[in-house]
Amino acid sequence: MGMIFVNRDRKSLGQFTEQEISNALSSGEVLLTDLAWREGMESWQPVSTFTDLPPPGAAPAPQPLPPELANIPAPNRQLPGRIRFDECLSKGWEAFVKNWGACVMATLVFLGISIVVQVPMQLAQVLLERFTGAKGADPMMMAAAGGVFLFFWALASSVSAILTAGFMYFFISTLRTKADLNLVFAGFRSSNWLQILLAGGLWILAIFCLALVFMIPGGVLTATMKSEVPIVVFAVLFLVPVIYLSVGIGFVFPLIVDRRLGFREALGTAFRAVHSQWFSALGLLLLVGLVAMSGVILCCVGLLATLPLSYLIWSQGYRQIFGDPDSSGED
Asked: What are the sequence ranges of the domains in the chain?
């Protein structure tokens, strides 16, 4: 297949054979998020899309590119990997205008299911509050009501996470090829749903551990010193890593559905890619949030337009960071 050219942050890492790429991945010299190109490809793609690499083995060291070729991408192709806000807005708007009917319908399906799965949980919460607030309530009945609430909470959270992953993938696919409403449910495929839940569970565990590390000492010091200062300081210390990690976590679910990655690989790929341009990724999320919430001005009805538009803008940012694989992963 010829030599493979590898770039990281627009800087050339050299040219490699398939065997050398495999060895470099094993040693950490090349990352799955690095961008690669070889003759016959239309654009640069993440190394993670090169699924036909041989297992690691002995191979000579890669030869660097000549200086005059070191930073030249494939002919007539803009090197992906960096977020460009103007393109996110223009491509997102163009795709919305072209596919507005399918986008609005997908949003209605997403919101409808999201609301329906919340109803049993809300009813269970009302039941739990009645038992806990009643005098002389039976402890067994309170425990049963708590168990019912936890069950429906876990069910609603799981369905919402899986559905959100498919909703994201729908807009990514809409930008690439065409709008397909069936892709809203792509997260429920057998190869995706468990990985999505494992990634979500690991995220919740990480937040819980961070809360234990920062909030418990803050609470103890606040009670000991009888001052609100310690809890405020520790709350800030808690929020810093949470905000940092939250910017990257949004790309994990679509990586699982789009690239068929396991939850560990998806988490690592997302955080490594976002780390190099964290503020740009944060800016993209803020832009997306502003566009989505602008629909509230029109008595929330405008969300049917601004919500899908915001997801299209975000999806273009996703494509800029991770590129487009040779196959979009559709069944």
From this structure: 4-60, 85-322
